[in-house]
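# step 3/5: fold
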Amino acid sequence: MPLDPILGELHSSPGPDQATSHWVGRATFPPTGDVVDYQFNAPNDGPTETQRDLLRRIHRRYPELQPQLLSLLQQHLDAEGPDREDPPAGRPFRLVALWLPSQDHEAMEWDLTFEDSTTQEQYMVDMKGWSPVGVAPA
């Protein structure tokens, strides 16, 4: 199990073709301090520098993205109806996973998975570029 300085302890499984593997890393997400599972497809020998650089950009940009992400999550929960429990005071959502795209470009598709601290249900926020575009149960 290789240890990556940004993506943490890495595990791989066969990917969509012989040259690619599906990778999972587990490391602290610096903007929140949460331990996060990073998932991505990469060459069999591990993540690319492009992917590491993109993750560094996500770390830097997360503080500006977070209000949009949390607002979209709350809108999704509000649409579920009035029977939902009110979240506890403080931080109702915790980032638990991030799907890292292979390429860094304005139309890249990626997602973040959050856990509701009240119900432990997980919700995936789909991203296109740097904009959240939807929420679905994970």
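# step 4/5: annotate
Residues 5 and 66 are 24 Å apart (CA to CA).
# step 5/5: archive (pending)
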